[in-house]
Amino acid sequence: MKYIIALYNNTDNGKTQTLWHIAKLLISDNSNTIKFSTLSENPQLDFSLVIEVDGEIILIESTVDSSKNNYTKMRKFNLEYNVNYVFCATHTSGQTLLDVNRFANEYGFKTIWTSNYQIDEDNNYDFFNKLKAKHLLQSMMRYRLSKAKLC
After folding, report:
1. CATH code at position 131
2. What's the whole-model pTM score?
3. How many domains does the chain have?
């Protein structure tokens, strides 16, 4: 089974930064192999990352801009790398949400919808975005391990 973990929220609520933290956690494990990356050291800039983890391909797509056609980007990476898991950012409505649904339906992905932690204080965003990134990554890894034990 293939999964999209779609991080949805309004504009400027830390979706890209949360995905950036997931990417940095995956990259920090030297046994993982980067296949494609536009990741920078700035957690505010959109990026794409394709990385192999224990034989499975993970795509992280942080772009939430309908003019950049998220569907086409996810489709391209899926066709080139045969992706198992997608972490992506999307708005709560509109074209980016439709792109995620279209991709999931056409390529047989199950979608898990989640959002950032909602906080009142701007100065704590980085802490909570990092915490959400760890939670999502740990959840995916635990699921992968439980799936392996069932087979």
Report:
1. 3.40.50
2. 0.89
3. 1
